[in-house]
Amino acid sequence: MTVVKNEREQAKLVMDAGDISRALTRIAHEILERNKGVKDVALVGIRTGGVHLGHRLVKRIHDIENAQVPIGELDITLYRDDLSLRKEQPVLRTTSVPFDISDRIIVLVDDVLFTGRTIRAAMDGLIDLGRPAEIQLAVLVDRGHRQLPIKATYIGKNIPTSRDEQIQVLLEEAGEDDRVVIHKA
Amino acid sequence: MSLKRKDLLGLAPLSVDEITLILETADSFKEVTGREIKKVPALRGRTVVNLFFEPSTRTRTSFELAAKRLSADVINFSPSSSSVVKGETLLDTARNIEAMQADIIVLRHPSAGAAEALARGVKSSVINAGDGWHEHPTQALLDLYTIRERGLSFDGLKVAIVGDVAHSRVARSNIHALSKLGAEVRLAGPPTMMPWGVEKLGARVYRDLDEALRGVQVIMMLRLQLERQGRALFPTIREYARLYGLTAERVRLADSRAIVMHPGPINRGVEIAPEVADSLSSVILDQVANGVAVRMGILYLMSGAS
To answer: What's the pTM?
Structure first.
């Protein structure tokens, strides 16, 4: 427990609840603007943080445009590139995309964009479900250090970090106060 | 929580948490088997060997499909077409298979304990697909999954297992798991087919099928192994069917929403009446479908790097 406490003391707040809320509102507007509305647009949240943020975006888009955007939930575990290296396999959660993604514009939603490996896995997982017209990417935080040629379409906030720092997105849906913190290694 | 085991030999050694983990993992694969493209890359580059010393279509095909849907390479090895007929021992056969870099060996063998013996001798993971009268853990896990999928919870669940319990590895695995999970297990069948000392596992033996069925939520029928006829276990098939066959009238003794299960292959008109096998309460084909998802879950959990 002391370890956790020390980490908390070292944690630096980089976004508070207001910052997160405003960033999501802007992203919702950007999604509407870029796609000229939300006809054919669907969101797919990457478990677990991306799912919560995806639901918030659905609500915001509804508030702005009075349109209901379908949302799905994607678990990328089976598409990870390190499964053959791990001693014990990670716990699976269920993918649930209850609509046909073919010919739709899919906005993938995740909390943090880091190496890009999760997004690579998510795109592979998505394409196994159908052939989207386009895949876009919305993230709350882009912290850099990409290991793959992947770029977000919508970014809440760019936060420059060093490789050994940790970014944590804490959300109400997971029983926390909304905030983004950075931990020194 | 993860499965920290090299092998899956039976349900007797598994904890409730481990059983629950397998069932929850199978949920994710049930979604995959419902997709148009029923394949995920999780076991790419891995090799799964089906080593079957007894004839089996259902279990072997189910494992093969499960492994293929996880993108593993699958080899089917059966003794009639191999050097086993030339006198090679089980362990030597397995070591040869292992030398070909098999990651997981799925073994079906007529002798109880064969899977455990093999597991001690090889580095590959071993999954028991039925060893003699001992255990058939993946069949019991798919039975549990099917029960759970019907919205039934195990705690206090009344389950009747009917038929040749003594010679059934499916029954044994189910008794272990259901008792652990808090279910009330009732066994019914001819006295010659009831195992000794099964009460120690928490099961209760009933002589009268009607009494055993009263109020149960799950009826699990076992296949009458017709090849055992003439070994003084039961006088005639007709008598067996009359005393221990599941008819529509008997199903009415159970809970009104009771489900009827059978590991297959079924003997219509012997242990189960055709109209029961084809009724809405029958989940026999769900069991087969769920078998693939459950085995995908097991293969995935056992595929960690060694």
So the answer is: 0.90
